[in-house]
Amino acid sequence: MRKVKTASFLAIVGLLAGLVAATPARAQNSNEIVAVVPDSAQAGTTGLLVAFTLDSDVPPPPPAGAMPDSATIGSLSGASITHSSQYTVTAVFDIPAGETSGAKDAAVTFTTPNGTVVFSAVGGFSVTAAPNTPPGVVSHPRSLIARVGEAASFGVSATGSDPLDYQWRRDGGDLAGATAATLTILSVTTDDAGDYDCLVTNSSGSDLSDAATLSVDISVPTVSASWVMPDTEQFECYDDATGVGCPAAGAAFHGQDAQFDGYATAFSISGDGLTVHDATTGLTWTRSTDLNDDGTIDADDKLTFAQALAYPATLNAISFGGHNDWRLPSIKEVYSLMDFRGEDASGYTGSDPSRLVPFIDTTYFEYGYGDLSAVPAERLIDSQYVSSTEYVSTTMDGNATVFGVNFADGRIKGYPQLNKLYYVALVRGNPSHGINDFVDNSDGTITDLATGLMWQKVDSIVTYNWEQALDYAEGLVLAGHSDWRLPNVKELQGIVDYTRSPATSGTPAIDPLFDSTSITNEGGQFDYNSYWSGTTHATYGGGGGWGSYVSFGRSLGYWSNIWQDVHGAGAQRSDPKNGDPADYPTGHGPQGDAIRVYNHVRVVRGGDGPLRADFGFSPEAPADGASVSFTGSGSGGTSPYGYAWNVGGTPESGESVLASLPVGVHSVTLTVTDAAALETQVTREITVSATSPPPLADGKLAGSAALFSQNAGDPDLIDVTYDNSTCSTSQTVILYGNLGEFGAYAGAALDDAGGDGTAVIDSAGLDDVWFNIVWTSGDTAGHPGYAFDGSSDLERTWSAAGLAGMTSDDHANDVCE
Questions:
Q1: What's CA 719's distance to the chain center, in Å?
Q2: If 0-12 CB within 10 Å is exposed, 13-18 middle and 19+ buried, where does residue 23 land?
Q3: Nearest C-alpha neighbor of 35 from the set 51, 17, 12, 57
Q4: What is the pLDDT of residue 703?
Q5: Mean pLDDT across the stretch 367-371?
Q6: Closest CA to 214 of 183, 245, 237, 244
Q7: % of residues, the chain, pLDDT over 90
Q8: Closest by CA position to 334, among listed 311, 356, 365
């Protein structure tokens, strides 16, 4: 990726002249299929004879007649293979009718005396849909959580006759211009939240994808934490072989990484294009490892460990990006960039890095794989970023070691401090990132106040494969909590203590507050085990058979014909999720990584996204005098939660509280505190209205002889009608006036004894109208009161639209006897 060159960046080129190695010569690629004939066919084709033409580079293909082990197109294996010419192999293929359309890799594999030789052509064969085949969505979009300003992408893939047309929709409505197989929102806003699906059409029909929900996280990481553990970004669920729909609670493989939301990274690129800031961690990074600014990230841009230690001074001298406090990141800092949407490039046999998905967000960071054209040639997976964290012991025959992150294969390993080159990204800001603050809760749990996570103090003691580890976490009840889970791999790496190792401290690489089960390792040494995470280590092509773990003891490998520490305590590698460790007597991979399959477990709880507070209240439209019930809720962080309220200026505590509020608008604030002492607040306004009129029976106030209504001719007049039928010998008088001025009544007499009638009262100019109906038989027999509008104890609303409020005070009985 090219950048806009700035004066500060160009100045680095000169300053780095003594740091960066000279440009190596270029080497030629080999083992390619140079032609595939035919190079395409429709799904449903049977008996297709395909000829593969092999190149003549060194090593050349075996001579004619030496049969290949296999000839493949994608996942399809050819039959009736021939090798009548040294450079030509033919095979017959049946392409299933349901085969996904698109480009497929072609490969021919031989076993030779010098090992396996693979000839390949990336995307060398295309499968097209049969004519008149309607679309069928085979890969659906996945739900996402994004912060405001972050990018979000949805994608679909579909089979069917070309051309296929795509139309993305949000909440059922078409999105203008969203007509590609991928929908990308470059900068998410709250308006982008909703359900997204894609309608795929062609001339033969259409198919609608499943809906994926985009949730916009507008919360701010809790300020009480000294550092925030960013999420792995792994959104796909896996079984022990491949991607699957996320399992329900109680089902096999439930409780893995993708089923818990963490703090999403919140990257933004600086205006000068030189740096990337992560609002979640508070860290700012140099954006590119293209140190010589030639537009290509390759071996020319790599530094030795000693040069990397000196590199911050180079940037600080020129205030790179406007800052002079750059540093070489710790291993925990650089690992915060690890993105487990990536796929391990180790299983890729081609040479085109554009087909690979690295473990870093290339939307924001300029990234390069290993340099195949260097002399000597690097591997594509040689994309190690060095950290400042040196291993306290040694690896690989006693080498001084430094930890690094490989964004090509998705691992942390210890690497030699000498005779190796690294990519370098520098960091600034938040010096507390990665520093733990553990507290023993004296109930079998330990809380890290720095991150807000609560951990199991004693590990599982027994070892498990990955599925069993998930089951163990889901079934555990500890310290009264049943929401334990396998940590994601970044959470697990976050509790490594890189000042410890079995060889130097006699302990695992973890704070001594934790109890860890010891083992005897493959080399017969006293040691400590690795711990499973809930994160799948996806392999090239989307395979899900490996799970990520962190070594808290020696990261063992079979090297120099002995078992020894090859990657260091604190490394992050991966194991098969099931199988037999005996199948790997000398380990796996170029350093003979020990394969155990059965690892220990240390579970965690909390950290399920930012700590959030919310509350509801009932009734939802309260009137004055009503008792309102407020119920709070907490989520994220680490339960249990504490609840503190401010209800209209009155402090309250408890998950649920009751309050009676007067007419008006009141502010209600709920503060939620979690078990790690993190805090967050939510504030809402509640409107209390006037009381509605009491129910009327037969057109009258229930149980009363009086009926109030608005005068039909004048909205400022109130009609008071009295039914004298139950009180025929009584005299009735209507008194009214301003509430509180009881001595300043105006009177309006209805008919004398034995009569019914209506009194018309002029309420103009009266702010708080109060009525008293008095019936007498010599002495006063009763005087129920009625009031409208805003008194302090009988607040009512009167408007020209009509009578809006009415009640009886309890001076006496309101029925004439």
A1: 64
A2: middle
A3: 51
A4: 40
A5: 95
A6: 183
A7: 58
A8: 365
Distances (CA, A) of 599 to 123, 328, 485, 528, 574: 38, 32, 15, 10, 11
Residue among 689, 569, 541, 570 nearest 626 (CA): 689
Residue 4 tokens read as: 């806009």
Query: Which residues have C-beta within 8 Å of that of residue 119, sequence separation ≥ 6?
Result: 31, 32, 33, 52, 54, 55, 61, 107, 108, 109, 110
CA 117, distance to chain mean position in Å, is: 42
Check residue 146 and give its pLDDT.
77
Q: Which two tokens stand for residue 453?
A: 């996570």
DSSP-derived secondary structure for 188-202: --GGG-EEEEEEEEE
Helix runs in 108-202, H state only: none
Mean pLDDT, rounded, of the chain: 82
- Indicate if the pLDDT at residue 701 is higher than 60: no
Write down the pLDDT at residue 609. 65
Residues 6+ positions from 790 with CB-CB distance below 8 Å: 663, 767, 768, 796, 797
Q: Assign 333 to helix, strand or coil.
A: helix
Interval 569-601: pLDDT, tens: 999 999 999 999 999 999 999 999 999 999 999
* Residues forming a β-bridge with 526: 520
Structure tokens at 160: 């069917």
Assess whether pLDDT exceeds 50 at residue 752.
no
Tell me the two tokens of residue 217. Answer: 């996280």
What does the H/E/C string look like for 13-55?
HHHCCCCCCCCCCCCCCCCEEEEEECCEEECCCCCEEEEEEEC
pLDDT bracket for residue 631 (50, 70, 90): very high
d(CA 593, CA 575): 9
Residue type, 165: D
Residue 777 β-bridge partners: 779
- Yes or no: say if 456 and 603 are a contact pair by the CB < 8 Å rule: yes
Question: What does the pLDDT look like over 147-160, one tens digit per residue?
Answer: 777 788 898 888 88
Q: How far lies 650's CA from each of 286, 300, 552, in Å?
A: 49, 66, 51
Among 462, 475, 585, CA closest to 517? 462
Q: What is the CA radius of gyration of the chain?
A: 37
What's the residue count for the chain? 817
Is residue 752 classed as helix, strand or coil in its secondary structure?
coil
Q: Is the pLDDT of residue 372 over 50?
A: yes
Sign, CA dihedral 308-314-320-325, equals: positive
pLDDT beyond 80 at 740: no
The Cα-based distances of 717 to 574, 591, 685, 747, 763 in angstroms read 84, 96, 35, 15, 6
**Inter-residue contact 485 to 638 (CB < 8 Å):** no
**For position 807, what pLDDT does the model report?**
34
Confidence of residue 97 (pLDDT cuts 50, 70, 90): confident
Determine the 3-state secondary structure of 9 from DSSP: helix
pTM as predicted: 0.61
User: What angle do helix axes 305-317 and 7-15 make, rounded to 10 degrees?
Assistant: 140
Phi, psi of 268 (to 5 degrees): -150, 140
Residue with tokens 């089960």: 517
Closest CA to 107 of 32, 42, 30, 29: 32
Element of type H or E holding 531: strand 530-536
Mean pLDDT throughout 236-252? 93
Grouping H, G, I as helix, E, B as strand and the rest as coil, residue 587 is: coil
Q: Express each pLDDT in 535-577 by its tens digit.
A: 999 999 889 999 999 999 999 999 999 999 999 999 999 999 9
Q: For the chain, how far is it from start to end, CA to CA, in angstroms? A: 95
Task: Give the count of beta carbons closer than 10 Å to the beta carbon of residue 501.
Answer: 25
Q: Which two tokens stand for residue 550?
A: 């962190």
